[in-house]
Every structure is written in C-alpha cells, then in structure tokens.
Amino acid sequence: MEGRFVRHSRRVAYENAWITVWHDEVSRPDGSPGIYGVVHFGNLAAGVVAFDDDDRVALVGQHRYTLDRESWEIPEGGVPPTETALEGIQRELREETGLEASEWRELCRLDLSNSVTDEEAVLFVARDLRQGDATPEPTESLTVRWVPFDEAVAMTRDGRITDAISVAAILRVALDRATAR
C-alpha cells in the first residue's frame, strides 16, 4: 500500500468516561495538509452468542439513545483494561441476563467503524448455561428474549437486528455451521 496519513499534532477535542475525541493535524496520503478526527474508546467491546440446550440464543432488547429506538442485540458491553475480554464478557452476560456459562469459545475479533474509531471487539460463543439473577447497570433497562438460532439469523437479514456486533457474531456462527457440514 502506498501513501498514508502522517500525524503532526494531536489534541483532545472532547473527553468523557468512555470516549476521547482527538483532533489531529495531518498530511494526507497525497501530501496535502488536513485534519482527522478519531474517536478513541477506553474499553474493548465484547459480545456473546449464548446458546441454550434447545439451540436458542439469548437476545437483549433495549432502547439505544443514539438511535432513539429499540434494539435487539446479543449480550455485549465494554471491557475495561483491568479485565481480559473473556472476564469482561462473562461479567456482561451475568449482569444483563443472569446467565453463566461453563463452555466458552472465542469466535472472532473485529475493528468497528475503523475509518473514524479505534474501537475493537472480541466475540464469543457460550454454552452450558445456568440461570441466575440479572444485575443490569442503572443506565440499562433490558428485556431478555430467547429465539431459535435460525430466527436470529433471519432477524439479521430482515433488519430486526442491526447492531454490528450482533450481526457479525450471529452470521459468523451461521458461517461456521455451514462450513462444518
């Protein structure tokens, strides 16, 4: 690959507990001067396709402020640097659904919207579930729904599931199943 951006300076344009927005002065790949805005995430994103014994997956419904609409998603959340990806998603699954799993497998890693953010995600599959009590954060009002895996795949195709982490995880499991046949 030829040409790349060269950063000359960086300043914080905005910051809160979850993100930092950097304003970078750059030279563009053609050498001309420019700016680049980068959204830096303090946490790693993690998600899990959690299967019960009937091949159903747990979905979490919640209102997403940024979109001002309801969203069906796999259990997911932010993992701070003090936790591993697995520890973080185990905590998120327990908090959001009350579920704990004995069997975990890493599914894939993703760069999310890499043209404007450095956010990365790790996705998992969990099985051999046990139900406990959910303890959602005060900012979360969640509904848990169990759907057959084939319906979850259909939901990614017809727009009922649009969350990128959820779409990627569900379709990756479907791809893995198709290639295993």
Q: In words, what does this structure look like?
A:
- The structure is a single chain.
- This protein is 22% helix and 46% strand.
- The chain is built from three helices and ten strands; from the N terminus they run βββββββαβββαα.
- It has a four-stranded mixed β-sheet, sandwiched between helices. Strands 1-2-3 form a three-stranded antiparallel β-sheet, with no helix packed on it. Strands 6-5-10 form a three-stranded antiparallel β-sheet.
- A hairpin with an 8-residue loop joins strand 8 and strand 9.
- The radius of gyration is 19 Å and the shape is globular.
- The relative contact order is 0.18.
- The model has no long low-confidence stretch (mean pLDDT 95).
Defining traits:
181 residues, 10 strands, 4-stranded mixed beta sheet, 3-stranded antiparallel beta sheet, alpha+beta, single chain
